[in-house]
Fold this sequence. Notes:
elongated; about 30% helix; 6-stranded antiparallel sheet; alpha+beta
Amino acid sequence: MSTPPSEALQTITTALARSLDKDEEERAMPDITYYVAMPFRRDDAGMLVAGAAEECQSSSAALRRAEAMSRLPDNIGAVAFSRSGDPLMGEFNDARLLHTFGELPDDLGEL
């Protein structure tokens, strides 16, 4: 007993669609987490200004670097944070604060 051509075509089409969906899932890049240390200083007007952020290899490296940055003469403090997302899509979650060092305000969201 043979399968009718239209039913065979439907089976092949469904299998191909599933295969393509699976390929897309395998190609999808997983979220990447970036760990960052960023210093802060006060400008001539006394306003808090963020310095150059430095990407670190791990959360512990970001914490160590931020602590060191907070002790530099021109800086009043530093933060260590992480951010996860898909760089290919340009979609990232909100930053997650790991720790603050030095004399920084409690609410950094206003910066």
